[in-house]
Amino acid sequence: MHLLSGRPNLHGGVGLQSRCSFYYRCFFFTSPNLSPESRSYSPWRVSASKGNETLASIHNEVWSRLAYGSSLAGVLCSSVLSFADPVLEEVVFRGFVVNAIAKPRGFFAAVIGASACFALVHVLQFGFGIHLLPLFFAGLTYAIIRVCSGSLVLAIFAHWTINVVIFLPKWLVAVMHFTA
User: Fold this and answer.
1) Which residues contact 128 (CB under 8 A, 6 or more apart)?
2) Residues 23-63 pLDDT 10s
3) Other residues' Cβ atoms within 10 Å of the Cβ of residue 38
4) HEC readout, 1-20
5) What angle do CA 93, 88, 146 make, to 5 degrees?
């Protein structure tokens, strides 16, 4: 049966088609038109091979941009680094850089400078573009947390939380891809 509509899928149970449909609806907040006239063509009813091709395409699009690629080993390496990187980045940027700039220039300059450095370091991974703006504001948030709390632990926890929010849809796609 289909997870949301209760309709049977092609496999007779909750399979790839139902999971794709469920995740699509969750991420894009859509609701299918369940009227009898619309059931002749529905984007929710795709063949299993088309669903696997689509899932593979989404998986490759999501994971191939990252440093280790879309293989299982690449997904695992990227996932492990998504938890290890915040510790190193927070120690370097919110620890050393904030302290180094704050002594001669003050905390306001330190927060701005460390956030700019944080965004610019990510150019190596993502390239130049407007997408660096959210990285700057994320760095700004982590720096403010560090300066206001006086602790790197809260900044590291905030960075981990953001990474989980960013990686959760990617992990769902990877699990669906590797278990299909």
Assistant:
1) none
2) 444 444 444 444 444 444 444 444 456 667 888 888 888 78
3) 10
4) CCCCCCCCCCCCCCCHHHHH
5) 45
Residue with tokens 């660096």: 132
97 pLDDT above the threshold of 90:
yes
Least confident piece of the model among 31-35, 93-97, 114-118, 169-173: 31-35
Q: Where are the alpha helices (DSSP H) in 106-149?
A: 107-121, 123-126, 132-149
C-alpha dihedral sign at 132, 97, 124, 165: negative
Number of other residues whose CB lies within 10 A of the CB of residue 18: 22
DSSP string, 34-56: -SGGGGGS-TT---HHHHHHHHH
User: Are 168 and 23 contacting, i.e. CB atoms less than 8 angstroms apart?
Assistant: no
How far apart (Å, rounded) are the C-alpha atoms in residues 68 and 65? 8
